[in-house]
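INFO  loader      accepted 1 record
INFO  loader      residues=136
INFO  predictor   begin
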Amino acid sequence: MTRIGLELYTQPGGAEVYINIRRKDGGHERLAAFIDTGAEVSLLPAHFMSFIDYRLSEKSDIIIDQAGIVGQAFRAQEGFIRLFLEDSSGNMTGEFEMPTWFAQTDEILMGFEGFLDRAVLHIDMPRRAGWIELDA
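INFO  predictor   done
INFO  writer      dumping tokens
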């Protein structure tokens, strides 16, 4: 398993990881992404579809209810992206494919399916230390 260091924040609390998404031109786009342990699938802004390499899923256009709250739904396109993780120490995972929702948002969230479900997440907020171990 590859160990990738996380950036931890206390106010508001959270953890970020650096991702490198494969671009259409063959390069990679390096971005900071918030780890959301409650997100079913990772989420990217829809305008990323203009420059990153992706393939749409069979269901493609979907509506997501946020925690079943009435009126808290959004439309997204479901697809798959290729990416790898890295940290400030130079550690990197291998490239892997992950399901992703593309929606009208500015947020970059790393969710459960295809990411957290294949990882071990370590967060020690009092010491502000964290890492993720990923088999990729």
